[in-house]
Amino acid sequence: MKLEIKDYCIRCGLCEDLHGDIFHFNHDTDEIEVKYDEIPSEKEEAAKKAMAECAITAIYLARD
Ligand code: SF4
Question: Which atom of ligand 1 is nearest to the CA of 11?
Fold first, then answer.
């Protein structure tokens, strides 16, 4: 699975706080970065949790 962060992300930082192994808040570019192009299978459950936890649903499955 691949993730994308939508432009309307409000940079609350929750995804990095809870899943810092997957998300990184790049304060230089003011963007949330996904650390993996392809989410490792062992992190897929956490990635799905992060999608559900994002209050404004800014984390999406990316289309190939
Ligand atoms: S939890 Fe959602 S709104 Fe908050 S920084 Fe992550 S992607 Fe953006």
Answer: 5
> What CATH code would you report for 3-61?
3.30.70.20
Let me know how long the chain is: 64
The pLDDT tens digits of the residues spanning 4-53 come to 999 999 999 999 999 999 999 999 999 999 999 999 999 999 999 999 99
CA 22 to ligand 1 centroid distance, Å: 12
**What global pTM score does this model have?**
0.94
